[in-house]
Amino acid sequence: MRRSRVALIVVSLVAALSLITACGDSSEEDAQTPEGATTVANSALQTDSKGETVTAPPATTEAETDTAETETEAASSGDAAEGEQVFAANCTGCHLNNGNDAGGVGPQLAGAGLDEATVKTTVENGRGAMPAGLVSGEDLDNVAAYVVSLQ
Question: What pTM does this model have?
Answer without folding.
Answer: 0.52
